[in-house]
Structures are given as structure tokens and as C-alpha cells.
Design goal:
With 254 residues, the chain is of the alpha/beta class. The chain contains 9 helices and 12 strands. Helix 2 packs parallel to helix 9.
Amino acid sequence: MGPTDDALLAPFRAAPGRAGVFVDFDGTLSPIVLDAAAARPLPDAGPALTALHAAYATVAVVSGRPVSFLVEHVPPGPRLCGLYGLERIVDGEVVVHPGAPDWRPILDDVAEVAALEGPDGIEVEHKGLSITLHFRRVPAVGDAALAWAEGVAISTGLHVRPAKMSVELHPPVAVDKGTVVLDLAAGLDAVCFVGDDAGDLPAFDALDRLAAEGRSVLKVAVQTSESAPGVLARADLLVNGPEGAVALLRRLVP
């Protein structure tokens, strides 16, 4: 990083007790892998998060993963927000967004139908309060997976969210990474978010809103061959892959 990058980090390093650092998991702390269940954070990611937690007012992992997955792979300390804000860990317990539980029966039915009747080649991941249709192993079925999900959305009321080599179905609840960031940023003077996918764009929107209020913000995009172009275009700072993201986290430690 050069002097310009140092200037971007300065508001955070100078007053970490008034700042927050929020990060995505997949593609940010962890390299993208063929089998989503096998994803693991880089070895230096845990120590970096632990050091940040000791210094900063708020550190959080904000992910599309269920919190049950995050709690197994993120060290104690940082806040854990899963399924784009539908789940959080609070005082060691899973807290679910109040608008989501009523949709469990519909999600259960859709997951079952997807496994039996979905496009050939997709892998169905039922996350409890959302469903992901993965097509990383067979990219050619991506369009069919999206079309199938859109048809399900019309018949059930679920919302479709395209993601990296996958498509997701979520309850129609007004929560995303942006609402999570705005909530966690309450009372902070400086806020940083690090991500790589289209699902991170609402977090960048939230940072723009905070910047308009006069707060210092830093939008960091993790650059890989699969990064969402919109995320790269809107970032204040680009880092190379999860290795670059973890290196940035270490540099943020005062």
C-alpha cells in the first residue's frame, strides 16, 4: 500500500475506540472453494480479527452463511451476523429476525422440491431461513437455476438474490448487509466494510449514507476473478484476494 492507502486507514488507526470494521466471509476471509461446506478462513484471519476486536469499538463478520457456521470458524469476540442479517449471535444465543420464522415451512418445501425437481447439476443448500442453489460444479446451468428460482419466487413470495456461482431464495424481509451495517454503526465515527460480492453492495450503500452524515467510511473490495464488478467499481480501496483482505485487517490494528 502507498501513502494514499495509509491516509484512508488513518481515521481508523487514530481512534479505533470510535470505529468499526465489518467483513464478509466467503471470498474475503476465506478463499472460494468448490464445496461451500469446506470453506475455511485463512490462518491469519482469526488472529487479525482477535487483534481488531481488542482495539476497535465494533468488529463484525457479516455474511450470507448461517451463524452456526460462522461460530465454528470465527474466533470469539467479533459480532456474528449471518444470512444477510436474518440471524445474529447475541450473548451466545442465536437471535432470528422476527419477520423470518413464519417462512420456514415454505423454505422447507422449496428445498425439498429443488432437490427433486430443480435443474440438473445444481446443489441445494438449505440454510434454515434461506436456500442457496449452487451451480459452481456445473456453471452451464446457471441461467436455468436463476429462471427456476424466479419461478419459485413468483409462486411463493420468496425473494431471489443472485450470488457468486449460485442463486439464493430469501424470505421477503427488509434486511440485508446494509441494514446490518447501519445498525452496527450506531455511535461510531468511522466505519469500514470489506467484501467482494453483489450481496455486499447494500453495505456500500450504507457507508455512502454514513459518509453523507459526515462520518469517515472505507469501502474495500476484494479483487479476484469472481468479484462482482459493481463492488470493484464502487470501492475506495482494492485488495488482492483474501490474502490482501487479511493483510489489510492486520494493518488496521493500531
